[in-house]
# Entry
Amino acid sequence: MANSLRLGIAGLGTIGVGVVKVLQKHGDKLAEKTGRPVEIHAVADLDRDLDRGVDLSSYQWFGDALAMAKDEGHDVFIELMGGSDGIALASVEAALESGKHVVTANKALLAKHGTRLAKLAEDNNVALNFEAAVAGGIPIIKTMRESLTGNDITKVYGILNGTCNYILTKMQEEGLAFEKVLAEAQAAGYAEADPTFDIGGHDTAHKLAILTSLAFGTELAFDEIYLEGIENIGIEDIEAADELGYRIKLLGVAQKTESGIEQRVHPTMVPKHTAIAEVAGVTNCVGVEGDFVDKIMLVGPGAGAGPTASAIVGDIVDIAWGIKLPPLLTRASELKPYQRAKMRAHEGGYYIRLHVKDHPGAIASIATRMAEQDISLQSIVQKGPDDRVTESGASEMTPVVLITHETTESAIRKALADISADGHVEGAAQMIRIESL
Ligand SMILES: NC(=O)c1ccc[n+]([C@@H]2O[C@H](COP(=O)([O-])OP(=O)(O)OC[C@H]3O[C@@H](n4cnc5c(N)ncnc54)[C@H](OP(=O)(O)O)[C@@H]3O)[C@@H](O)[C@H]2O)c1
# Structure
């Protein structure tokens, strides 16, 4: 049997311990499959005395992950501490510079520094694998880096954050308000105490930045992503979507357009009968469209110790087999600068919800403003008067929901500005993009 592949695992939290468990359970099988023992040599974390529910006594202990990254005792540095900078960045850089392969699940690190880290890996002739960084247990990185290379990719999109999908699913299934479901999700451990990172769409954006680079051969451009979270989705939107034949999902979408590449994260209405509409709860999915494969979609668990560790061990096995690909598929020196498509040029259908004052001619005036921007309406639904009154305390208001045919974002924004200036509506319009997938 060939020399063993020696691993150093930095970060023994949920995922680090998950990886230890997989390797302890399946170590012998992995050796049979790869023809070489795959062994944990060292581990690093902050608190040596903490009982983590696994036996770590036979591994060398490091209280300093950076010292472990520089140590010569292992071949593969596995970064599972998290964070876009700090110790995660320093130790990954040190490991790559010292000629070690790196496996990480850290999307924040890759979204911010991925282009430079990919170059560092290539310059040092080592692997940088990150299957677990996007959609946990779903093998989308391998799919894009290996299986779909014969395609010109035109679009990649997905439900990439389980917390958001759980909240939207619960709102829809149980008719509950956003705040109530969020509190329940926090109690059940599906949402962090500070949920901003998830519900604001930032986590989805980190993953989308990685997918965009793989799909289009561009440098990672996380800061260029158009971002809207789910915090403004009301139960009235969920119900209206349902009545009109849609579900609301937080999607990350990257797509080639004539003016550049769109990267956007926002709540999206998808037709009820589509596969993506059926992806419920904490489950994730990723769809890819290519010129020869047409359309594919992968669905599965996007987080959790088992699925994420499963993806990480797959990355380790690739290294044991001697597979070493350019981390971002296109060689780092050949990655093109990202050219952003203007969001205002985005084309699609739109859902608009307005609170219309009970004035004669208000609805007709709204329809006129839409027509002036060449926006054709697929439907206009006027609900019963709501029990609120205008700011002046005067008249009743009526919620009105419009669904438009395909138009541009700039046309919609202009029409909404004109409608608002006419004084027939109160408050900001709710606007949700409709995606035909
Ligand atoms: N959880 C998931 O389902 C999931 C899914 C996909 C990807 N990921 C990614 O996987 C990574 C790990 O996530 P996780 O959920 O396992 O996080 P976690 O439970 O917080 O574990 C992180 C571990 O790293 C340790 N750590 C922090 N700073 C350290 C340092 N300077 N030196 C050594 N150890 C240090 C932490 O110790 P303390 O607890 O003492 O701070 C903790 O034990 C993150 O990048 C995350 O984004 C997670």
In short: The domain at 140-301 is CATH 3.30.360.10 (Dihydrodipicolinate Reductase; domain 2).
